[in-house]
Amino acid sequence: MIMAYPVNLKRQKDGAILATFPDVPEALTEGESVNEALTEAHDALVAALGGYINERRAIPPPAKAKRRQRLVFLPPLPAAKLALYQAMRDANLTNVALGRRLKITEAAVRRLIDLDHRSHIGQVEEALAALGKRLVVEVEKAA
What local confidence, expressed as pLDDT, does residue 1 receive? Predict the structure, then answer.
């Protein structure tokens, strides 16, 4: 799954640009310019999705962008961590159970799905493999 969420940008009466995500309503922010709003939107999206993990909620899949919407792409490590978390949910697997499979502690599993923790991508890839998933990275020309 490509982890890119459509964002709505709307100029406010005070001139600021409001950024909202239809798929992740908790992620909202603003900036003085479109570029600043998009930068802030990226941070707001990662923070909101981290909240989904903390609250043990399902990660909403990104919808296809509609006309006038831009896409905010998640960086590879947070995207991989979100995929791991969702795979664990889909398999009804606890942190402790995944830790047993990987021969690591529950705390180590918690760090693997913590979007603020700087895990090694190889560790996340190994955890995904233990759930029958494969991490695929794609590079494309920037817009």
Answer: 64
Per DSSP, the three-state class of 53 is: helix
User: What is this structure's pTM?
Assistant: 0.90
Q: Return d(Cα 15, Cα 10) in angstroms, integer.
A: 10
* Closest by Cα among 104, 94, 105, 115 to 44: 115
Query: How far apart (Å, rounded) are the C-alpha atoms in residues 76 and 142?
Result: 15
Q: Is the separation of the CB atoms in 29 and 19 below 8 Å?
A: yes
Query: Band of the pLDDT at 141, cuts 50, 70, 90?
Result: confident
- Phi and psi at residue 19, to the nearest 5°: -115, 125
